[in-house]
Design brief:
- The protein is built from 13 helices and 16 strands.
- By secondary structure, the chain is of the alpha/beta class.
- The strands form 4 sheets. It has a 7-stranded mixed β-sheet with strand order 1-9-8-5-4-2-3, with helices on both faces. Strands 12-14-16-15 form a 4-stranded antiparallel β-sheet. Strands 7-6-13 form a 3-stranded antiparallel β-sheet, with no helix packed on it.
- It is globular.
- It starts with about 25 loop residues before the first helix and ends with a helix.
- Bound molecules: pyridoxal-5'-phosphate (PLP).
- Pyridoxal-5'-phosphate binds next to helix 3 and helix 4.
């Protein structure tokens, strides 16, 4: 029997998020009292930093050789791109449906995001639109696992391998999802995750990069800690600075604080229990809506053997933005849980405006040129026709999921 405290706090309302893990207070207090609040200090012999512990726990959780925590998911993407050391102003392909950071990280790393359309059934990057977007300037592909399903990352890696193009997975919305038994984030050279408050693994603000080989460890550490990396195993304890000035590549400060790391060490302990509840409820909802005309949920590929639901898009076929705006407000008023519309696809997004930064002018010119006639009809349709539930709406009882299904049907 699962403790309800893992999915709701006592008396917690439906849709409450974040839900504190049982050990959150204990670990946060330990971090506070340790007086080691950052990784860039003198190490104590009697305790391990939460940041080190979280790196290990997360690498184990996804089955990656190494994990390097960062201050945000956006900086995880920046250092993954920087680690590839591509020629300046390389093109990096990103899908039309994602949070703006997938594309803005490309600008921050000195490259040009090129936006491709998505699979109409899932909203994820698909190998065909990807192939169309590839040019001789393509240096990398960022595949995002959007909302609640994984992109066909195995097929996308094949496209990349055929052309010698590196793959970065933006798994900010898919911690613990599995494709043919392998976790999101472990297919590409790098997998990047956001650990921001709304995510299924929430540390307030935070991020983490995993790599497909431990050979990337020093480079990634240097890129996120002002060119410094951890002293070799065994030499990192005692009254010495934990970080040494190894300077293989110049970095910036994107380090995770000990408070976020302590919280994450607690929150990861309840992640799988919460996945189980959300996933069971998704399949119940799918069953309750099956055969109902005009409403559909994203189709889950049989190759995806485990879901990790960040946002649940519900599609009302043929509807438009204004209609869905009203529909989202009505559903939210009936249920008391947050309902909203997906973000606008990247081209035309109110948040993606590189021309507002003079320093980006050369990259902006290339970006504008590349997207002069860009059309992303599948992404546009999904954004227009869907309303979205945050994953906390699925941390619910069977009765609440029944109410959810009834309300969706009434609001067709
Ligand atoms: C797909 C995706 N990529 C990147 C990010 C950026 O993460 P952060 O907000 O932690 O910088 C997010 C956060 O919402 C995201 O959903």
């Amino acid at each position: 029997m699962l403790s309800p405290a893992y999915t709701r706090s006592p008396d917690g309302a439906w849709g409450e998020w974040p839900v504190l893990s049982p050990r959150a207070h204990e670990y946060l207090n330990q971090a506070l009292e340790s007086q080691q609040w950052a990784i860039s200090g003198v190490l104590r012999e009697d305790r391990e930093l939460f940041e080190r512990r979280f790196a290990r726990l997360f690498a184990d959780y996804v089955g990656a050789p190494i994990a390097v925590p960062t201050d945000h998911g956006s900086s995880a993407l920046v250092i993954a791109l920087e680690a590839l050391n591509l020629p300046a102003a390389s093109e990096v392909i990103v899908p039309a449906l994602t949070w703006v950071a997938t594309a803005s990280a490309v600008f921050r790393a000195g490259h040009v995001p090129v936006v491709c359309d998505v699979d109409p059934a899932t909203g994820n990057m698909d190998p065909w639109s990807l192939e169309e977007a590839i040019s001789e300037r393509t240096g990398a592909i960022i595949v995002v696992h959007w909302g609640m399903t994984m992109a066909d990352v195995a097929a996308i890696c094949e496209v990349g391998a055929k052309r010698g193009i590196s793959i970065i997975e933006d798994a900010s919305q898919s911690h613990g999802a599995e494709w043919q038994g392998r976790c999101a984030g472990t297919f590409g050279t790098f997998g990047c995750f956001s650990l921001q408050q709304a995510k299924v693994l929430a540390g307030g603000e935070g991020g983490v990069v995993v790599a497909n080989s431990s050979q990337w460890r020093v480079t990634l550490e240097e890129l996120r800690a002002d060119s410094r990396s951890w002293r070799p195993e065994g030499a990192e304890r005692g009254p010495v600075l934990g970080l040494q000035e190894s300077v293989g590549i110049m970095g910036s400060n994107y380090c995770m604080s000990e408070f976020s790391a302590a919280l994450l060490c607690a929150q990861i302990e309840t992640l799988d229990v919460q996945h189980q509840v959300r996933n069971k409820n998704f399949y119940l909802l799918q069953h309750l809506l099956s055969g109902i005309d005009g409403i559909s949920l994203p189709s889950v590929s049989p190759k995806q053997n485990k879901l990790s639901i960040y946002e649940l898009p519900v599609n009302f076929s043929g509807s438009c933005l204004t209609e869905n705006n009203r529909r989202a407000a009505n559903i939210q008023a009936s249920l008391g849980v947050k309902v909203y519309q997906p973000r606008h696809p990247l081209i035309g997004s109110s948040l993606l405006k590189p021309w507002t930064k003079t320093g980006l002018a050369p990259l902006t010119a290339l970006f504008n040129e590349r997207h002069e006639d860009a059309k992303h009809p599948h992404a546009e349709r999904i954004a227009n026709e869907s309303v979205v539930f945050h994953h906390s709406a699925l941390l619910a009882s069977e009765e609440e999921i029944n109410r959810l299904a009834t309300t969706l049907i009434e609001n067709r």
